Amino acid sequence: MAERVLEVKDLEKSFGALKATNGASLDLRPGEIHALIGPNGAGKSTLINQISGALAPDAGSIRFLGTDITMLDTARRARMGLARTFQISSLAQEFSALRNVMLAVQARQGTSLRFFRPVMRDASLTEPAMRMLSRVGLAGRANVPAAALSHGERRQLEIAVALAMEPKAFLLDEPMAGMGPEGSKALTGFLHGLRQEAPILLVEHDMDAVFALADRVSVLVYGRIIATGSVSEIRNDPEVRRAYLGEPA
Amino acid sequence: MAARETTVNVLLVLLLPAVALTALFIGEAFYITLATRIAILALAAVGLNIALGLGGLVSFGHAAFFGLGGYVAGVLATHAFNMEPVALGLPGTTDMPVIWLAAILLCGLVALPIGLVSLRTSGVYFIMITLAFAQMIYYFAISWPAYGGEDGLSLSMRNGFPGLNTARPFPYFIVVFVLLLAGLFLFHRLQASRFGAALEAARQNPARLAATGISPFAIRLVAFVLSAMITGLAGALFADLNRFVSPSMLSWHMSGELIVLIILGGKSRLFGPLAGAALYVLFEYALGGLTERWQLFLGLVLLAVVFFARGGLIGLLAGRPRHG
């Protein structure tokens, strides 16, 4: 059995009478892209939020790099190397693209309690941040405030921020959402190579992207994983076809 | 735009010494005192601006720190005058630098537990809980007869600064003005620093900040404590200006006044507090002479700022803020 970067076990989360996560278990192995798919309302974002630390599960455990992180807050998990992007872009809107990435660089360095040196004249922040922007193709937009970027550019910026954290695992929550065919294709190519740096748990609606990228796919329905397997196994799984792909078995 | 803001800032900085010097030459000490008052209120608001402007933390309890700083000056001077130790055999003092240090440290120490509790809340709850803490300290001061209770505490003379005759208005103005410049410099460097970046991100998007690995709570707590320290220093200066300290320095009116200064001048702008304090004191002086109800007009100006000039006076004069 291969070692696991991330291991989610029997997670449960209820909102009132609604069981949003109902005993979900999944894992992430080195070098893979593990796609999490499911119909709207299946609880994908709830699950991601529990893994990232934004929500506390009612029961179950989450292990990351061999450590139980179930009780740790978001910032601690991020410092351990868990980088997430948000389904709806979540950036410091007034800051430029560059400053958004610099924030992640400074978080990585653990140096936020420095009070005097101006960040914009600090090459140990600006240079790595600029490199990350170049990697996602945003170098030319470095000085534009996040609020003034286009939707697609904001998605790219989210990725650049995650890269700057030099993470041990990526949690990407619908990175293709609203991207358009051109953008999706470029991002698919980018993510293809990214798994070499750190494994990716990918929540995505774009099935072309999922089937092109995923080493494994898990299908979430009503808060539980009904199947996990390779792309072809999932495509041919009768239960998945019935529950998710909307075809009669 | 950036050049215009620099021009506005330079003019604002020169305004106070220009007024004070003119007053000195024509022999109108009152205007020196007016300029000193503006500088002290501006310094108090510079402190609050760290929490409110940069961090988005609307503290409605900063009078607690302003008043505590004032009481540090008053209590230490009283003990020095009576030659009684303050506590644990430590003597009182009339030495300003020592008083400042004591005010800064005490305010930091008090702000830490207040921040630890208050920062677990946000929005209206944060406003209310900071108000509640400040009111507790206010009522404590009123009910403690040793230092004048409701009547407050008079300083028999202004505390001293080595090498200066602080009893005279102009040297005291210089002392206060230099401290204001130091406060502004500190704010400027803070805003541009790594800490400032994290603090402003905590205001804009705390979830994002946490997701990059920086705890918004820790950043806000440090900001709250720093903010209280600077406001406390201003309080010590204020007590020395008036040679009097009373619970009114601790009251919620004072907290509100500090917030008003910032909104008038321009939230999270370096020179917002100074512009706001200048405008406020000018209003108080010009209209206060005409009518008791001058605050009605201040209220109208405040409404106008909130509706038509969100950036305050600085925003009006210098345009939108720049961000790297």
TrEMBL record, chain A:
It holds the Pfam family ABC_tran. InterPro entries: AAA+_ATPase (IPR003593), ABC_AA/LPS_Transport (IPR051120), ABC_transporter-like_ATP-bd (IPR003439), BCA_ABC_TP_C (IPR032823), P-loop_NTPase (IPR027417). It comes from Shinella granuli. Keywords: ATP-binding, Nucleotide-binding, Transport. GO terms for molecular function: ATP binding; ATP hydrolysis activity. This is Amino acid/amide ABC transporter ATP-binding protein 1 (HAAT family). PANTHER family: ABC TRANSPORTER ATP-BINDING PROTEIN (PTHR45772:SF2), CONSERVED COMPONENT OF ABC TRANSPORTER FOR NATURAL AMINO ACIDS-RELATED (PTHR45772). One of its GO terms (cellular component) is plasma membrane. Residues 6-247 form the ABC transporter domain.
Automatic annotation (TrEMBL), chain B:
It is found in: Cell membrane. It is a multi-pass membrane protein. Keywords: Cell membrane, Membrane, Transmembrane, Transmembrane helix. The keyword Transmembrane helix applies. The chain crosses the membrane at residues 12-32, 38-58, 65-83, 98-117, 124-147, 167-187, 217-238, 271-290, 296-318. Signal peptide: none annotated. It holds the Pfam family BPD_transp_2. The keyword Phosphoprotein does not apply. GO terms for molecular function: branched-chain amino acid transmembrane transporter activity. This is Amino acid/amide ABC transporter membrane protein 2 (HAAT family).
